Amino acid sequence: MLIVAGNNSEQLCRRIAEGTGSQIGEVEKRRFPDGELYIRVKTPLEKEDVAIVSDTRSDGGIIHTMLLVDAASGMKPRRLTLIIPYFSYGRQHMRYKPGEPISSKVLVTLFSNYVDRMATIEIHDEETIGFSKIPFSNLKVDHSVAEYYRNRKLDMVVSPDDGGYNRARSIADLLGIEATYFNKIRTDPKNVTMEPPSDINFNGKRVLIFDDIISTGGTIMKSIELLRSLGASYIAVGAVHGLFANNGHERIASLADELSVTNTVAGAYSKIDVSQEIIKYLKGENGGK
Ligand code: R5P
Q1: Of these residues, 97, 184, 271, 283, which one is catalytic?
Q2: pLDDT band at 204, cuts 50/70/90?
Q3: Mean per-residue pLDDT for 163-183?
Q4: 42 C-alpha vs ligand 1 centroid, how far in Å?
Q5: CATH of 2-140+274-282, one of 3.40.50.2020, 2.60.40.10, 3.40.30.120, 3.30.930.10
Q6: What are the start-end ranges of the E strands in the chain?
């Protein structure tokens, strides 16, 4: 197998290449004088089993990924797989108001024209998976997350909303501890209100609050505030995808006892390695087709 690094994914690619015993393909990248991106895959891909790993976090990352899948598919690989560790625009998976696009469907449609199969990690809503006409796997990272927190002596895992409860439950089960969720109501894109469950005592507890995405950090900061007011003694904050819009990570890190996200998006707090889940998929060990 040949692994090709797309946008902002070199470190993850190196780990995947090591874990699958693969070579990393060489790609030339530069900018035209007007800022447009030029790429050229230099390693021959004909008849190879090729996996591209590319971050679509930024709009520039989407263009980069599109150019790369077109370049690679034009080189006639035997099979072309696209791994998108963080699938951006996943939260607009439906038309909430007339006149809006189904953004996640646009991305799925574009990418699936070029590759044989795709995988992502913990997409915001499974509905996006259903838009694909090619095999599209949504990989879970509960095992990697639970292993990361195994020695923290945590008492419970809290999801900031009911939508994330199954993830919190699964991580808690692997750690043999309790799980619960807050009742979150979003009042506008930047603000939320939150209520704790009335039957759970947080006083003196060591708590992991875990979400799928930290974007502005509003949800997580409100959760930290609530847990502090309820007497939690240790608050570890975690998420699958740390986007940290407006560089909110330093503020969150100063409020929590610990901040760690996975390396689906590379960053200073991307401490939980999920490359094993991607390696298992590429080896066909966790439902990868
Ligand atoms: C919402 O449904 C998601 O699970 C996250 O809670 C949300 O995207 C976090 O956004 P923010 O960090 O902007 O509050």
Answers
A1: 184
A2: very high
A3: 97
A4: 39
A5: 3.40.50.2020
A6: 2-5, 23-24, 27-31, 37-41, 49-53, 79-84, 117-121, 136-139, 156-159, 178-181, 183-188, 191-195, 206-214, 234-242, 258-262, 270-272
